[in-house]
Write a structure and sequence with these properties.
Chain lengths: 208, 243, 218
């Protein structure tokens, strides 16, 4: 399933930050978002993930295809690593829950931590668990916002491999990151899409 | 020319500024005429004596307390359906006015109730309903105040207004069921043979019109202020974005 | 859907989940009332249904800020919103979990506390029935309030201010059933009204809560 974004404008706090963003992500490819802090990477990702409405433009092929990983991992401290993953697998309604969970645990080298409560994990381990969650959703398009924060070098390597495997098996990904993961795909620099200050128009736009 | 043209903030501001002096003037004149007529040129009631005259404050404020909520409900629906900012801001502007009208109705009612029923407060259905209405106003205003993003605040408060309206009506029936009450029936109604005497009703009508005009003037004025405030915030946000 | 409910229950029952807090609060309120109004048993018997209803209502209110706020803070709510479940189902399950972990224990313990307040013999059955019928409405309305205030830093007090007026009809009919039951009067009308409010709230409010949550997630 190809994700096609056409002429998308996104807003943050009712102000347009990016406009005219267009791209397509075909299966097997990753799109790497670049751009300085505050340019609107998170806003764009949230909009594509369907968490906030687009100001203008269209997004096709995203409906029920997206697994989203944000800064917060959505982990419950009193549940064990395995229970956390199992919960998300069930919520996303995948068929072979147990298999998927153990696969995801292996992918991110979490097997030895499987029965430990998430509260006792280190920041990097939590991050790995949060990323492992993407695998149990069964969704083809992974949208990730700064996924490598607090990961060590070997974990970043491992993460890049997992994403590469995901791409090879027909998935796709959209990643906002500052480091080079060596993935097959295109880069998109958002700087050129920054919304120019509009002329104040007369109607309700007078507020923007 | 379409009515929706006034949903344009600029058009709203210029028009309301032109109309406002007239509305203020009319409101002041009618309210004054109504109150002076009512207070000094009506006879004392044979049962209630001169206490009856508080009716000229009590009934119009109670009327506006309820109508202000209706206006907010309508404005909220317009915001949800058509997303005109002015509509949301008008609802925001009307809430404190409505709340004050509710307080006036409650206080004048208490002052009237003391000599008539021998008590400042009675858990009578009408009084209780107004108290509950006041609580709804408080919640609505507090929600507006608590949320920073103006569009989010407008969305959330309008949904609260919708849900609140249903529960306000439910409370009204619940309260009626809970206590049958002391309060007299409506003093004025169109389908009743026996209304209060013309000597009272005529100045009362004038007062009601006066309060309605006063409400209109206050809401127009406050909406203008809210529009300016909103615009100022938007300009500051733009500046931050560009800077 | 069941997985979500199961997880919420699991979280509530594990350490730090706050299960039992509402119950303890309910107990304390009921114990404090006789200190405030005096120990005369006739007086306590007369006000018992109302006190028990108010106590249950406040205990429900106390735990509302946990319904959605925790999931909001750790980002689960964002992730749930991208899941195949509609938000309406999510908020319904959240209300359900709140009801099971907070309201149901209150209903179960209420006859015991009725003994403390000298509730007349005929009142126990109707007290339990009225709480059983009324508390679902309290949970659903409360979830709506929690959804409204979910993104706010000091939402707790505002939540009470928003939710308490919405609780008025439920409280009136619920306490009326308990009161009439205790006095041996006919309870049909308020009972039906109470059931009606609960059913209508359950049917309609999840949509309002989901709409509000969608706005707050933006």
């Amino acid at each position: 399933m190809t994700l096609t974004v056409t002429d998308l404008s996104v807003t943050r706090g009712a102000l347009p930050v990016l406009s005219g963003v267009s791209f397509a992500i075909v299966p097997g490819e990753a799109l790497i978002l670049r751009g300085p802090n505050g340019i609107g990477k998170t806003t764009l990702l949230r909009t594509v993930a369907g968490l906030q409405p687009a100001y203008a433009g269209s997004i096709a092929g995203a409906e029920d295809q997206i697994a989203y990983a944000a800064h917060a991992d959505g982990l419950k401290p009193t549940l064990s690593t395995r229970e956390n993953l199992k919960f998300w697998a069930q919520i996303f309604g995948v068929k072979d829950v147990t298999h998927r969970v153990s696969e995801a645990l292996a992918d991110f080298d979490l097997e030895t931590l499987a029965d430990r409560p998430a509260a006792n994990l280190s920041a990097g381990q939590k991050r790995r668990l949060g990323l492992a969650r993407l695998g149990v959703t069964g969704r083809p398009i992974w949208i990730m916002d700064e996924p490598t924060v607090s990961l060590d070098t070997s974990s970043v390597q491992r993460f890049a491999e997992v994403v590469q495997n995901h791409l090879q098996s027909g998935g796709s990904a959209m990643i906002a990151t500052h480091i080079d993961l060596g993935l097959s795909g295109t880069e998109l620099d958002l700087t050129s899409y920054k919304t120019a200050p509009q002329q104040l128009d007369d109607f309700d736009g007078a507020f923007l | 020319m379409s009515f929706w043209e006034y949903a344009n903030p600029r058009k709203f501001l210029t028009t309301s500024e032109r109309v406002l002096p007239l509305v203020w003037g009319l409101a002041a004149i009618t309210t004054l005429v109504g109150l002076v007529w009512g207070f000094f040129f009506t006879p004392d009631d044979f049962r209630m004596g001169s206490t009856v005259k508080i009716i000229f404050l009590h009934v119009p404020s109670a009327l506006m307390a309820i109508n202000a909520w209706f206006m907010m409900l309508l404005a909220s629906i317009i915001w949800i359906v058509r997303r005109h900012h002015v509509s949301a801001l008008a609802a925001k502007a009307a809430a404190p006015v409505g709340a004050i009208m509710t307080v006036i109705a409650l206080v004048t009612g208490a002052i009237w109730g003391q000599p008539m029923w021998g008590t400042w407060w009675e858990w009578d259905p009408r009084l209780t309903s107004f108290l509950v209405l006041f609580l709804f106003y408080l919640g609505y205003i507090a929600l507006w105040e608590a949320i920073e993003d103006p569009d989010t605040a407008a969305d959330l408060t309008s949904i609260l207004c919708l849900v609140g309206s249903v529960f306000a009506v439910l409370s009204r029936y619940a309260v009626l069921f809970w206590n049958q009450g002391l309060h007299q029936g409506a003093s004025l109604s169109l389908d009743k043979e026996e209304n209060i005497a013309d000597v009272f009703s005529n100045p009362l009508y004038v007062c009601m019109v006066g309060f309605a005009l006063l409400f209109l003037a206050l809401v127009l004025y406050r909406t203008g202020t809210e529009i300016r405030l909103r615009r100022m915030k938007a300009l500051i946000a733009r500046e931050r974005l560009e800077g | 859907m069941i997985a979500l409910l199961y997880r919420d229950l699991q979280l509530a029952f594990r350490a730090g989940g706050g299960f039992g807090l509402g119950l303890a609060f309910f107990l304390i309120v009921v114990v404090l009332v006789p200190f405030a109004v005096g120990p005369q048993s006739e007086l306590l018997a007369r006000i018992a249904p109302g006190v028990l209803w108010i106590g249950a209502l406040l205990a429900c209110l106390l735990s509302l800020d946990r319904v959605l706020a925790l999931d909001w803070e750790d980002g689960s709510l964002d992730l749930l919103a991208t899941a195949p479940l509609p938000l309406e189902a999510i908020v319904t399950m959240k209300s359900c979990a709140h009801w099971i972990t907070t309201a149901l224990p209150l209903v179960v313990i209420s006859p015991l506390l009725g003994v403390l307040l000298h509730l007349p013999g005929g009142g126990y059955l109707w007290l339990v029935i009225s709480l059983l019928l009324g508390t679902p409405a309290l949970s659903v309305i409360g979830t709506f309030g929690a959804a409204l205030t979910v993104g706010l830093k000091r939402g707790g007090l505002l939540l009470s201010l928003l939710v308490l007026p919405l609780y008025v009809p439920t409280l009136i009919f619920g306490a009326e059933v308990a009161r009439r039951g205790a006095a041996g009067l006919a309870v049909e009308t308020p009972l039906l009204m109470l059931a009606g409010i609960s059913a209508a709230s359950l049917a309609v409010l999840p949509f309002a809560s989901a709409a509000v949550l969608r706005i707050n997630l933006r």
